[in-house]
């Protein structure tokens, strides 16, 4: 049985979700060879990062929304991201298991109880994802691959910002579930994309990713633009939003509604976790915010 101590490697912030990747290892961080290590990822986004770093895996999570990279398509699965099979994971004797940091409250005690070495990857925003990539590069002997990815991100953002210097639109972001919706803040992945694109979230919030807010309060914020996306079941959520905006009279008083500035986002690009589709997502926001883009 492995005993473990939680450590944060690379960025010594107290707030875990603001760091890159959180590493758990016995007493000290141990660099391992990505060519021979037994590694498991418990989310599609984490698997994509490993693919970009040219790291082989021994198992991946099941995903109904996103197929795995080609190199991993025949690997065994260990359950869904939110409830991986700990017994199956332990039986594979992994050197590391990597999961999204958003699931740390649920998964940390399970990993500790099973004596599993783990890492939590920051997927709440794009900059955090790339800090995690740098950390993983150092941990897995993939510094060169990580450096290439980070440089590509920095070059892309430099070009993106040089094209878009107009006034920042004030944005209300609605994240829907069948039958309900919440407001997404800057702490959410969608909110972080809006911020990267130059938008100003009318509900920035410094602590929570999502807020429950009444429509009267939203009306007082007077957003220039309203963005809508879905956490799951996008077709049903789209129908819900259509019905909500038709039957709830308060929406007709929003300036954004009057000016036809309500946009439904592509759920595959604007989901819950940062991923390498952020370029396409920012391209969509570029068109909405500035009337341009590819």
TrEMBL record:
Known cofactor(s): heme b
Record keyword Ribonucleoprotein present: no
Lineage top rank: taxon: Bacteria
Pfam families for the chain: Peripla_BP_2
Gene3D superfamilies linked: Nitrogenase molybdenum iron protein domain (3.40.50.1980)
Keywords on record: Cell membrane, Heme, Iron, Lipoprotein, Membrane, Metal-binding, Palmitate, Signal, Transport
SUPFAM superfamilies: Helical backbone' metal receptor (SSF53807)
Residue ranges annotated for the Fe/B12 periplasmic-binding domain, each copy included: 38-293
Family listed: Belongs to the bacterial solute-binding protein 8 family.
NCBIfam families: IsdE
Alphabetized PANTHER family for the sequence: HIGH-AFFINITY HEME UPTAKE SYSTEM PROTEIN ISDE, VITAMIN B12-BINDING PROTEIN
Annotated protein name in UniProt: High-affinity heme uptake system protein IsdE
Organism whose genome encodes this protein: Aedoeadaptatus acetigenes
């Amino acid at each position: 049985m492995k005993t473990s101590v939680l450590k944060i490697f690379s960025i010594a912030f107290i707030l875990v979700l603001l760091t890159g990747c959180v590493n758990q290892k016995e007493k000290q961080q141990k660099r391992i060879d990505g060519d021979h290590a037994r590694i498991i990822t418990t989310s599609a986004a984490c698997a994509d990062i490993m693919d970009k770093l040219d790291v082989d895996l021994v198992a991946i999570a099941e995903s109904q929304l996103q197929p795995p990279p080609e190199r991993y398509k025949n690997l065994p699965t260990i359950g869904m991201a939110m409830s991986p099979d700990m017994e199956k994971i332990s039986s594979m004797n992994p050197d590391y298991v990597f999961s999204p940091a958003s699931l740390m409250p649920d998964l940390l005690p399970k990993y500790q109880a099973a004596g599993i070495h783990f890492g939590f990857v920051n997927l709440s925003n794009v900059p955090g994802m790339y800090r995690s990539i740098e950390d993983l590069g150092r941990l897995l002997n993939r510094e060169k691959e990580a450096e290439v990815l980070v440089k590509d991100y920095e070059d892309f953002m430099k070009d993106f910002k040089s094209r878009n210097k107009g006034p920042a639109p004030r944005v209300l972001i609605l994240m829907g579930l069948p039958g309900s919706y919440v407001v997404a803040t800057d702490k959410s992945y969608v909110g972080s994309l809006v911020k990267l694109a130059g938008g100003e979230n009318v509900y920035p919030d410094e602590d929570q990713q999502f807020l429950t807010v009444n429509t009267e309060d939203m009306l007082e914020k007077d957003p220039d633009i309203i963005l809508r996306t879905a956490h799951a079941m996008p077709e049903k959520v789209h129908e819900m939003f259509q019905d909500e905006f038709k039957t709830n009279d308060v929406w007709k008083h929003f300036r954004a509604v009057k000016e036809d500035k309500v946009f439904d986002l592509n759920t595959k690009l604007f989901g819950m976790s940062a991923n390498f589709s952020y370029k396409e997502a920012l391209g969509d926001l570029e068109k909405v915010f500035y009337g341009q883009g590819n």
